[in-house]
Amino acid sequence: MAGLELRNISKSYGAVSVIEGINLEVTDGEFVALVGPSGCGKSTILRMIAGLEDITGGDISIGGEIVNDLTPKERNIAMVFQSYALYPHMNVYRNMAFNLELAGKPKAEIDRRVRAAATMLELEPLLDRKPSQLSGGQRQRVAMGRALVRDPSVFLFDEPLSNLDAKLRVQMRSEIKQLHKKVGVTSVYVTHDQVEAMTLADRVVVLNKGIIQQAGSPMELYRQPANTFVAGFIGSPAMNFFEATIVGGAARTAPGVSFEFRPASRLTEGQPVTVGVRPEHFQRTGQGPGLTGPVSIVEPTGGQTFVTVDLAGQPTVVTVSGDDLVEAETNLTLYTSPQQVYVFDRETGTRLSEN
Amino acid sequence: MSQIAPAPALSVPAATTRARARRSGMRGKWPVIILFLPPALLLFTLFVILPMGEAAWYSFFNWNGYGLPDQWVGWKNYELIFRQSAFRNALVNNGLIIVASICIQIPLALWLATMVTKHIKGALVFRLIFFLPYVLADVAAGMIWRFVYDGEFGLVANIAEFFGQEPPFWLADKNVAFYAVLGVIVWKYFGFHMMLFIAGLQAIDKSVLEAADIDGATGWQKFMKVTLPLLGSTVRLSVFFAVVGSLQLFDMIMPLTGGGPSNSTQTLVTFLYSFGVMRMQVGFGSAVGVVLFVICVTLAFSYKRIFMRND
User: Are residues B114 and B48 part of one domain?
Assistant: First the structure.
């Protein structure tokens, strides 16, 4: 096991820069998730750590050793690919043993390690099967087993659950979490699914356009998003945003519609801002006049119901309890509390409120 | 007993249902069969079955192609074929062409395919250059190489002269001519096999190769243990084409050597043409055709049965 450090990493293809000055330290045994929309550079970062992609600038070190010029096999990392990347012509046993065979390990040791990993992942009955004879979840487990037998310093996961159905994804998610708890290897996990990132990782790194937007614990990102991008990306359904102006210490979106909030920095009267309120932070009871609007869509999901309300001329998603009866084309009055109202600079997107 | 008793009672309706389903299935298929089968069957009979049957029939006659075949000779034409040293030459040559294809042409094509599928500058141009000989008509390729090999003014002669050597007459030397022809065959068809391999290589999931990199495979190990096994079906298809292609080889040999010197470059088809068509021995030629057909069908079917069973 070892820590991982990225120092001022950059990557460009010709004149096109895709990663700009990434700095990230992953401590020994930590589980870090890189999350962001498609094309944000998260997979590129992972591939650079693996040595599958050259870096244009900066340093990558694993266990204190700079590995910029080392080949993938010399970095002692293991990677689980999105497509699983199992060798189709080899059975499960050989898929898991291949790395050890190449390393010239004795047969007895290979057998011991493969069987130990297979036991851990409940793969023993499948050892003779070819990947084509396995289900998606089983393939995923074999891919993890293959990574596990190597006893790597760093585990890299490249969207490993995105090819699975929703139910299996949840199951595999908890298996990965348990596995990490058991082996405690430093792990970097790339995903575009913020729920996956939040539930799995000790620390989540939000990326956009090759730049780290914010890094922190899942709840830190949820409660104190650094900017509108992070605020919009973390949380499901996404945060509602309103364009507003600072009037008398509150953020006014329309005549008679304003949000009270806790300012973190000095704001000037008339300053254009963006107000963000999470769907789950709207309450149906509260102090003051509240915000009233007609309900346009009601989406029950069981425990919760997503209600789209037209607030200040803008469709706003609100989460209410599944037991609450809300009907479309009726008026709904909603309340917010100042500590749950986020105010961002409209130009830069930086958070200006204390939350 | 009470458990056995209901069985026949149950099996009868089940069988009836199956039969009914089969009947109704067939009833649905009949219009399709009546509508689509006759044209195909007619064409296939006219242009495949009948000529084959005719050839088989003529092979039992001593016939020059004029008038009606009336001189029945039984199996004599077949006996004659196997007595001809030129036929044995042709058979051996076809075998050698298959061996050269498998041992030289296909490995070369595979190697070049791995080169030109890499993302390097100019790879696409090389793909085109390597494929060009295959686009060329066989007769044209034969003509070109006849000039290249010409001992008086050919390229080979010029090269030999440049190095102060006597210009060789490869196509006129019965010990060398066939190897010169083999060279042309490899040159002409490696591009085709290369294209097959390029398609095969492009179908391999890139992440599998990256996984092999991470697993610590060297370039050679990656090729032998991952790429080649994953190309298995393409290699088997390529060999199949090489086998069938060698048995059909004719157009390129004729302008190059015409099967000579001393029948040293005959293939089965050039033998058929030289000894059957050119000598107006239609009966004999038909017998060669039948033998060739039997060889082709046997090789093709057994190859598919043995090697391409799972492809």
Answer: no
